[in-house]
Design a protein that fits this description.
Structural class: alpha/beta
Helix content: 25-40%
Shape: globular
Number of strands: 48
Length: 1222
């Protein structure tokens, strides 16, 4: 039987033959005879390739000079391992083959081999890999690209998207002599016997040994004629007599103890390498200029005394890492005066305590590493290092503040500076001609205060706008993948000014009609990344955002933005590897990215409806694969625009820098806090920077939608514009009045715009909601107290009750009808002697429930084992590991919960606020969450904090941001995700109403239970009163009125109000005294008021009992309406009347009767007035009020009442029969 060529039978036989050969090849052993030493080299390369790891794609480079054996070792590894894979190809001699046949030919050859299809139609080269992406991802592949010369070859052969095109387990090997080609692509690099890197020759140990022998034999008798010396005796002879030595390499000479005092005679010496000379204790004085010396490496030596002179006028690189000297100042060691050309200085772990002001003489310094030193502050003169580009301060654990830094600084890494609290304003000197991008890394800087964080973000934003504006002026329209500026620091909240915010790692939003005007620069991006036991093994980390813009015409553009991270380390010649970066808490990443190309498909002459989507993920900066130990949990975006020419932040920058503009305190503040951009902003209404009056201006984006972010502009010449508000000042002899003149725009529009209406009405409507929103049951709490107004006993379904459950009668003496197994998620358990309010609430509640017989399991963050509160047996505390005390990681807590739940399911699960995120809450139907504060209440706080601003004081950036941009989206997000929680517990009447009326939670899922405090710990005690007042120097029958305040001494607790009001009070009353219990920024200010104020610092619960008994009236001037302050309840239980800010939460749930004390609007005048009234009443009348307070508090605010109410709710959740009261 004959078969014709091309017939089905012929094709079938041909296919059988090919498959047979494949099987035979796989079964045939690979032998590598005639290649001595190849097996060891293969093992080294195979270790880097890591064939056993199948969860990722790995790309490994083989680097070396031509003819050194790169192809041979790659080929041997390929032949030994290709049978592990579904598809494979060794593409030899890429450089020459591409010249002969073209890259298209090589691409087709590669894809046909990988996909095992001879007649495959590849199509256009640039889209080939994308077209076959699904098929490529179906196979585990092994690809070797031999002798690749440039990026174009690499991009065409493995695809532009890189590793994302391939299935996990795929391995790609690239052999090349081009080191830069591998830097951005590979996970690991294998260096063959000899390679050239940065003008340095690197070689294998075998060649090194052989070379030493050859060098020795070249001049056996005359050591001075040899190119290299290794023998100790030869070295000593040459150092004594020879002066024309260029390189003296004594690295790791571990027995070297001394250097000759004539070292300075080596006038031709260019490099002196002493790293690793662990017994070298003294460096000789350099009395004569070693003018040729450029490199001095002294890492890991035992030098303890600093030389008196080091004259090296041409020194460019100085490294002294790991050499801990005994001179605590370490100033003389540093070669300042004689080394003006120094460009790189590495002083890691040198026991440095401070640097001198003369530091500025190193004017050419570009890289400075001060990591792992004891420095508390950097000298102010550091700002004069105008060429400094990289500054490393990692693990400087005593560093508390940063001064103004140099203008050209591009990279700052302050990882692990655990004491760092403040930074200068401005952070660096900014110039109008700014061109350098910057990255500021503040990972694990946990003490960085809010002002410092805002200053860093503000500075970064301004710099990015100036950079972007410069790009516009230079007509640069391309994509810059790296951010213009980026910053990261610990935290779990997005800045409020980010217009678009979402939970999770992706978002989609509609852009304003004129987003792509001629001032558009790009995007401001922000994420919160949650880390869990993250160890940075590659020393690279990036947050990436994939963006897609689609307009109404269907045009679409996709691009990728980098939010920054870290990718550099403090280099030195030290033999010790740098400790990996370890992170266990949430961090905020913010970047400002140039995206001019995003508007290329949009017509600037018309409005354009555009939908934008963003997807964020984290990578190790090399493989671009998702990291399992961290994830993006929140994301945000705003559009970024170049500042207007008259932007108040740019005043004073017009000449050269901010340096001239920051001579005064007001200027400094204005520069930092005027972080607004283009239109839709508040311009700081004061004299800024250049001394000129900047007119007060409020302008808005022009669209009929909603309140827009201040950084999303309108296009005035395309659509109707807003009326503008201009302000002129008219001065009279007595007062200064402001006249607001409404100026019509050039286009005629008589009707007000919707945006303008919304802008003015929304914030003040929300304010009105807090101040005026009262329902028919607004005084219900007061009515519930039998001491005042009788109400018939209530009965019915507890789920319908819209009043506090604390008012109901539950039996404390009777055991619970059913004992429950309860799970509690709480971010913190009391972890110190003075726990916060939420921690005290948790301790009080769950201890009380445990005493009632319930099996309570608390899942919380790591504890300090030395504290007594953490030795409690009941409730059972499950603290997750892997981080420092108090650092919450919900995933680990969730794992512990699931493990315990499998033993016996929990009856009810309870979360303190968002300790258990909403995406986990969906999985728990028997869940209740207690809200200690919500975003709608936070807005109220921001409004009041701004209202207490003094005339001329600039408005805080955070207020501008919250009012203009992110607060409404944040409230909307809360409204969306709150529904994932089955039951909601509000700790005040007003919070319950907002959850029902605004957040639209069904009434039967909202329950009001007021906080409670331990009634045994707070009571009236005359002995304690006498003892406390005697310590104040007050007689027992003294008529002095003692006011008391307790808690954190910070602004949002109202201490600016109390400070000013009491200052006025003591001007007219000599018989008043203020006792302050707490710590914080306002502690020192109170002490300045003299002997009328006693500052006690933080007090433990036992000390607080004496404090409450010793005062006559308790003052709570808080500016935060969210939640209920426990101090009010403690004071009332101790029999003291109260003064409190008139907020719905306090008025309707605590101070429900005028007899309980005084309420005031949160301003100085109102507080002063009620203080005057209290002093006028006298101690006896205040004591009468106090007894009524105690009577009411004993009914409503005890821990027992709170615990019984929670117990009944949990029983109701477990079994509906317990929902019926009584």
């Amino acid at each position: 039987m004959m078969m014709h060529f091309g017939s089905p039978e012929c094709d079938f036989v041909d296919k059988i033959a090919k498959e047979t050969f494949k099987v035979i090849n796989k079964l045939s052993p690979s032998e590598f005879r005639g290649l001595p030493g190849i097996k060891s080299r293969m093992m080294e390369l195979e270790k880097l390739i890591d064939f056993e790891e199948t969860s990722c794609v790995r790309i490994v480079g083989v680097l070396g000079m031509a003819g050194i054996g790169k192809t041979t070792v790659a080929d041997c590894v390929y032949k030994q391992n290709y049978n592990r894979f579904d598809g494979y190809c060794f593409l030899a001699n890429v450089q020459n083959e591409s010249k002969l046949h073209g890259l298209d030919h090589l691409q087709r050859k590669l894809l046909r081999k990988l996909l095992d299809e001879e007649n495959i139609d590849v199509g256009a080269p640039e889209g080939a890999h994308e077209a076959f992406k699904d098929r490529l991802r179906n196979k585990k592949l092994f690809i070797v690209l031999d002798d690749v010369a440039n990026e174009n070859q690499l991009r065409n052969l493995i695809g532009g998207a890189g590793q994302e095109l391939y299935r996990e387990g795929t391995r790609i090997v690239i052999t090349t002599s081009n080191k830069k080609l591998l830097e951005k692509v590979v996970n690991e690099t294998y260096v063959c016997l000899i390679t050239v890197s940065d003008n340095r020759l690197e070689m294998h140990d075998l060649l090194l040994t052989m070379g030493r022998e050859v060098g020795y034999e070249s001049s056996i008798k005359e050591a001075g004629n040899r190119g290299r010396l290794w023998d100790q005796e030869d070295i000593c002879r040459v150092l004594k007599y020879k002066t024309k030595l260029s390189v003296l390499n004594l690295k790791k000479c571990t027995r070297l103890m001394h250097l000759p005092t004539t070292l300075c005679k080596l006038k031709s010496l260019k490099e002196l390498l002493l790293s690793g000379c662990s017994k070298l204790e003294i460096f000789p004085d350099v009395n004569e200029d070693m003018g040729s010396l450029e490199i001095l490496l002294m890492d890991d030596t035992a030098i303890k005394q600093t030389p008196r002179k080091m004259y090296m006028s041409n020194l460019k690189l100085f490294s002294f890492g790991g050499s801990k000297v005994h001179d605590l100042t370490c100033l003389e060691l540093l070669p300042f005066s004689g080394c003006s050309r120094l460009s790189d200085m590495y002083l890691t772990d040198c026991n440095l305590y401070k640097l001198p002001d003369s530091f500025s003489c190193l004017s050419l310094l570009q890289t400075l590493c001060l990591s792992r030193n004891n420095i508390k502050n950097l000298p102010g003169s550091i700002k004069e290092l105008h060429h400094l580009k990289s500054l490393y301060l990692k693990h400087c654990q005593n560093l508390v503040s940063l001064p103004v830094l140099p203008s050209n600084l591009q990279y700052l890494d302050a990882h692990g500076c655990i004491s760092l609290e403040t930074v200068a304003k401005p952070m660096t000197i900014i110039v109008v001609a700014e061109r350098s991008q910057s990255t500021f890394v503040f990972t694990d800087c946990f003490k960085l205060n809010r002002d410092a964080q805002e200053s860093i973000v503000a500075h970064t934003q301004l710099k990015s706008q100036i950079l972007g504006n410069g790009s516009i002026q230079r007509n640069h329209k391309g994509l810059v993948s790296e951010p213009l500026a980026s910053v990261n620091f610990p935290g779990n909240d997005l800045p409020l000014w980010f217009r678009h915010q979402r939970m999770g790692s992706s978002m989609e939003t509609h852009l304003p009609p004129h987003w792509c005007d001629d001032k558009f620069i790009g995007l401001s991006l922000c994420v919160v990344v949650s880390f869990e036991d993250y160890v940075d093994k590659t020393n690279r980390f990036s947050v990436i955002c994939k963006c897609k813009f689609r307009n109404e015409d269907g045009d679409c553009i996709s691009f990728t933005c980098n939010l920054g991270g870290w990718k550099e380390q403090c280099g030195s010649s030290s033999s010790c590897e740098e400790e990996p970066r370890k992170l266990t808490s949430d961090h905020v990443f913010i970047s400002y990215n140039n995206c001019f190309h995003a508007k290329k498909s949009h017509d600037l002459s018309r409005c354009c409806n555009t939908t934008a989507s963003f997807k964020f993920f984290v990578t190790d900066g090399v493989s671009k694969r998702k990291l399992d130990c961290c994830e993006v949990v929140k994301c945000g975006m705003s559009l970024l625009y170049a500042p207007d020419e008259n932007d108040c932040r740019l005043q004073g920058l017009q000449e050269s820098s901010l340096e001239k503009a920051v001579s005064g305190k007001e200027t400094e503040t204005a520069v930092d806090e005027a972080v607004v951009s283009k239109r839709g902003r508040f311009c700081i209404p004061e004299e800024l920077l250049n001394g000129k009056r900047i007119k007060k201006e409020i302008s808005f984006a022009d669209c009929d939608c909603s309140v827009l972010s201040y950084i999303e502009p309108a296009k005035p010449n395309l659509c109707p514009t807003e009326e503008t508000v201009e302000e002129d000042e008219l001065k009279s002899k007595k007062t200064e009045e402001e006249k607001v003149k409404i100026m019509p725009s050039k286009t005629k529009h008589k009707k007000p715009r919707l945006c303008t209406f919304l802008f003015f009405t929304v914030p003040f409507s929300i304010l009105s909601l807090f101040l005026l929103h009262t329902s028919s049951c607004s005084s219900s709490t007061a009515a519930f107290s039998s001491s005042y107004t009788y109400q018939p006993p209530w009965s019915g379904d507890l789920q319908t009750a819209q009043f506090p459950w604390n008012r109901l009668a539950f039996s404390l003496t009777s055991p619970p009808p059913k004992t429950l197994k309860l799970a509690v998620f709480s971010r913190k358990w009391p972890n110190g002697p003075n726990p916060g309010g939420m921690e005290r609430h948790a301790l009080t509640l769950y201890t009380a429930l445990a005493r009632r017989g319930h099996r309570v399991h608390v899942f919380t963050s790591p504890l300090d084992p030395s504290l007594e509160t953490n030795k409690i047996i009941n409730p059972t505390i499950h603290s997750h590991g892997g981080s420092e005390p108090g650092k919450w990681q919900y995933r680990k807590a969730w794992d512990l919960y699931q493990e315990e739940n499998q033993k016996q399911p929990f009856d009810v699960v309870h979360s303190e606020s968002v300790s258990l995120p909403y995406w986990k809450a969906r999985e728990v139907p028997n869940l209740a969450v207690t809200w200690h504060g919500i975003a709608l209440e936070s807005l109220h706080s921001s409004l009041y904090q701004d209202l207490i601003r003094k005339p001329g004081e600039p408005r805080l950036q955070s207020f501008n941001a919250s009012l203009h941009s992110a607060v409404l989206p944040k409230i909307l997000d809360e409204i969306r995700f709150f529904h994932n929680y089955a039951h909601h517990i509000a700790i005040s009447d007003s919070c319950g109403e907002m959850l029902r009326d605004v957040y639209q939670i069904p009434e039967k899922r909202v329950h009001v239970i007021l906080n409670g405090v331990d009634e045994k710990g707070f009571s009236s005690d005359k002995k304690l009163r006498s003892l406390f007042r005697s310590k104040l120097g007050l007689q027992e029958k003294s008529s002095a009125i003692v006011l008391g305040v307790a808690g954190r001494l910070v602004k949002d607790k109202g201490h600016p109000l109390l400070f000013e009001a009491f200052s006025k009070l003591i001007e007219t009353h000599s018989n008043v005294h203020l006792v302050v219990a707490g710590s914080g920024p306002w502690e020192q200010r109170y002490k300045k008021l003299g002997d009328k104020v006693t500052v006690l610092g933080s007090l433990n619960p036992n000390e607080l009992k004496g404090f409450y008994n010793g005062i006559d009236i308790f003052v709570n001037p808080t500016l935060r309406p969210q939640g209920l302050d426990l101090t009010l309840m403690e004071a009332m239980l101790s029999g003291k009347p109260v003064m409190a800010s008139r907020y719905p939460s306090i008025k309707r749930s605590v101070v429900v009767n005028d007899e309980f004390g005084f309420m005031f609007a949160p301003n100085v005048e109102a507080l002063t007035a009620v203080m005057e009234a209290a002093v006028a009443e006298g101690a006896e009348r205040l004591a009468e009020r106090g007894w009524k307070c105690r009577e009411y508090a004993a009914e409503m605010f005890t821990a027992s009442k709170m615990a019984l109410a929670y117990e009944r709710l949990f029983l109701c959740i477990k079994d509906q029969r317990f929902c019926i009261y009584p």
